[in-house]
Design goal:
Blueprint lengths: L1 H6 L6 H14 L4 H26 L26 H17 L2 H8 L1 H7 L11 H18 L3 H13 L16 H14 L1
Length: 194
């Protein structure tokens, strides 16, 4: 996150953050917990940039290299580079952006587990409210932790269990909370593959 903040001059563009997370997940998918930690990590990165820039404003000696400054301290500012004052102002704007952003929407737009569950052939999952979808993702997260499987694999198994369910039975995903039978079925399917 620090590199993303540094490359943007501490000016957060949430679309850029979203692209970064999606591209990163092409290399290594993030867990639910890691995705929910993003706002905290962004705040910490912005606060680190703010501390560095504020130190420059009041002429404190620099303790650690400043990732936002790509020039030697003694050289003249490059055209287009931000001054310490501008970085401080940008940091406050970025902190405000982080505080007001709809992280639930962000999470659902970048979560690979969410993408798998949304591919529910009966389209029941997509019709659920946020709280219900969150409960389903939480069950996926718990089962992954309990079984040692990845969250993506658990979500795929849940989707397969819905696809292979008898046609005369109601969709398991139709209830507002994950049913005990779905949880047990997912757990057994996961254990049988281990």
């Amino acid at each position: 996150m620090q590199q993303l903040v540094a490359d943007s001059g501490a000016r957060l563009d949430m679309e850029q953050v979203q692209r970064f997370v999606r591209l990163y997940q092409d290399i290594r998918p993030l867990t639910t917990g890691e995705l929910w930690a993003l706002p905290i990590m962004l705040r910490l990165s912005i606060l680190a940039a703010l501390a560095q820039a504020a130190g420059q404003v009041i002429n404190l000696p620099q303790q650690v290299p400043d990732p936002l400054q790509r020039r030697e301290p003694s050289s003249r500012p490059q055209p287009g580079s931000l001054t310490a004052d501008e970085i401080v102002a940008t940091c406050f704007t970025s902190l405000r952006t982080i505080g007001t952003h709809d992280w639930q929407d962000f999470f659902e737009s970048v979560s690979r587990v969410e993408q798998i569950l949304r591919d529910d052939p009966a389209a029941v999952y997509t019709g659920m409210d946020r709280a219900s979808r969150d409960r389903y993702r939480h069950v996926v997260e718990e089962l992954a932790l309990a079984t040692g499987q990845s969250e993506l694999e658990v979500a795929r198994m849940a989707k397969r269990s819905v696809v292979t369910a008898p046609m005369d039975s109601p969709p398991t995903m139709a209830c507002s909370m994950p049913s005990a039978s779905m949880t047990v079925a997912m757990s057994l399917a996961i254990r049988s593959r281990s």
